[in-house]
Design the sequence.
């Protein structure tokens, strides 16, 4: 408490009592500290085991039931009361078993699906377009777009579910609507419609504006670009070879509140430490390595990861990467709330 406040004055206690009874507080009074976000690593064998067990004991429910989606959520140890991965973004892992459908709905929270496991027969339908899901594919379901998931194959589909739901909750803007005409929306567009409509070669009459749109980024298109740049570019000193899943309309962030990246760490590569005001959640697609993250530039928390593990680097934490293999590259997919910070002129970086 400030020295300017006379704590011995008996009138102060009475003032505090009156203010508390009337939902008031003084600027001089201490506030409850916000829980601290922590760097953390989630081991894939544990996540996957829990997900598979949930497939046995949690029935995928109808749209108005609590289990309308079957996901295992990644919870930051500092945010357990909120079941949150970061203050803005939630990453979960979703399972849809053969023959199951996650029924159609929409919400103001922007969402994306990054496919971890599947045979390409399952799909997400977004605004009338079937988007088939193969490992490494990224499917966008932007804010307020109808979407449902269906597994018509014989193998499980597993994907990362990423939503800006905690940001929406903080802004009191998290709204949700169930599709009222059955469990699935009608398919009205041919597969590939969005990519053809918004590709580098597009119809002259197309004017989609600058808002986020349904889109799918195929891993079969992404990997060759990553490999080519890894062979011809020096890359970024802090992140290795780093690519952005650019918005096909604006060329900017993937969505207004979530940007998606994929990075390649060359065999034995160690990057330089840096920090920034955005939080980032990572998923290891290939390889094994270590990420050191912490408030202290020279004394961070080492997170040793391998394939399919997930980890988070909170805002303003120093971090750097090391590929532990001397012969194989490491590939990491990541999501970040950087677009939010940039739009508010709050993004900052230091090395």
Sequence:
């Amino acid at each position: 408490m400030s020295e300017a406040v006379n704590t011995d004055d008996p009138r102060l206690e009475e003032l505090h009592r009156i203010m508390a009874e009337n939902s008031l507080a003084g600027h001089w009074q201490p506030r409850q500290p916000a829980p601290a976000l922590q760097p953390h690593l989630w081991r894939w064998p544990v996540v996957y085991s829990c997900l598979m067990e949930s497939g046995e004991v949690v029935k995928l429910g109808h749209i108005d039931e609590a289990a309308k989606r079957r996901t295992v959520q990644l919870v930051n140890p500092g945010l357990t009361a909120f079941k949150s991965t970061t203050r803005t973004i939630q990453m979960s892992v979703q399972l849809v078993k053969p023959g199951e459908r996650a029924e159609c709905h929409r919400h103001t929270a922007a969402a994306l699906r990054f496919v971890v496991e599947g045979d390409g027969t399952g799909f997400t339908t977004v605004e009338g377009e079937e988007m088939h899901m193969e490992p490494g594919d990224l499917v966008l379901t932007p804010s307020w777009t109808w979407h449902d998931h269906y597994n018509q194959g014989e193998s499980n589909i597993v994907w990362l579910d990423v939503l800006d739901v905690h940001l929406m909750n903080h802004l009191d803007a998290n709204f949700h609507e169930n599709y009222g005409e059955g469990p699935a929306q009608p398919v009205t567009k041919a597969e590939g419609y969005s990519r053809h409509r918004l590709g580098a070669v597009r119809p002259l009459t197309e004017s989609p504006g600058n808002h986020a749109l349904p889109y799918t980024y195929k891993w079969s298109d992404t990997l060759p670009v990553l490999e080519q740049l890894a062979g011809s570019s020096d890359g970024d000193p802090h992140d290795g070879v780093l690519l952005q899943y650019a918005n096909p309309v604006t060329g900017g962030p993937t969505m207004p509140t979530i940007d998606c990246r994929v990075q390649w760490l060359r065999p034995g590569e160690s990057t330089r430490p840096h920090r920034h005001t955005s939080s980032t959640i990572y998923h290891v697609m290939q390889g094994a390595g270590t990420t050191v993250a912490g408030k202290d530039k020279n004394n961070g928390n080492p997170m040793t990861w391998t394939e399919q593990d997930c980890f988070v680097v909170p805002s303003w934490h120093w971090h750097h990467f090391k590929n532990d293999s001397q012969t194989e590259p490491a590939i990491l997919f990541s999501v970040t709330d950087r677009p939010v910070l940039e739009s508010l002129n709050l993004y900052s970086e230091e090395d």
